[in-house]
Amino acid sequence: MKLFKPQLLGELLLKNGVVMAPLTRSRAIDNIPNELMKTYYSQRSGAGLIITEGTSPSVNGIGYPRIPGAYSDAQVQGWKEIAEGIHENGSRVFVQLMHTGRVTASLNLPEGGEIMAPSSVQLDGEMYTDIKGMVAHDIPREMTLEDIESTQNEYVQSAINLVEAGVDGVELHSANGYLMDQFLNPNSNHRTDIYGGDYKNRARFVLETAEKTAAAIGGNKVGIRFSPYGVFNGMLGDYDDMVATYTYLAKELAKLNIAYIHIADQQVAMGAPAFATDIKKTIKESFGGTLIVGGNVHSTDQAETLLKEGYDLIYIGRPFISNPNLVDKLKSGVELVQPDFDKAYTSGPEGYIDYV
User: Which of 57, 69, 75, 187 is the most exposed place for a label (fewest CB within 10 A)?
Assistant: First the structure.
């Protein structure tokens, strides 16, 4: 079956076509990747490619408790050791760079952090904090042009540091309502300057960041994740120029020769409506390069169906939480273990590295 055969991702040879999707797990005490995380990722390195959990490029982008960063020496050293563990088992790793923007509470920010976003638009609902439990999202400060440039530079510097530490590449998280997606979406971007208004302006922050990152580490070491029609974290799932937005992004990213585009399907995990158009095909045709797709994939047959439709690599998310040897189980058709979500975001090894 094609899923289990070696695949090329740019110049990288992947041992199979299974991609472990980024999964927030909240085990990075003091926001520093650690030995427990190394064990977790090493256990799951049967995947051809591991895309790590969202990792902040900035002290301002730490949205949730205990999520890792990549902006300090200690954090980068932690990722270096994790990458070594993954590589020992023949897998490849891209660290997902995720700045949460307005999706945070000030109690979750390390000292010196500030909540900022494209526009000063508060996200409805509440955010968990270790200190006070559930609290309202803070009102973000609208980013100045100087903030935009410095934030882009933080992405670039984190990418440089990670690649120098031995990581195979980075994924820019422009999905699920986080900072990059906040620029794209008219529900969160009310700007009237060159970063707001029509879809080309709303896409400017994403494309500039991708271009700067590709120039710094090579386009073949840069991927990006999108969630068209997504509604998570207060996003508008459909809008007049949505298809035009992602068509434009795909065509512009193709010029940078980036490694891949990764399409997050929120229908099952996040309760989004079905795609109103065949947006995956539109993006694939506009981009021309590697497209990673998935969403609610639990079997080899489901994955093979997507490969037969012309997509390149298949991401699998939640089954990897509770099945560290997922690829072997898919090959043999063994029944998968269901995750214990009560332990999904705790700080210890239970519900993290104790699955078999």
Answer: 187
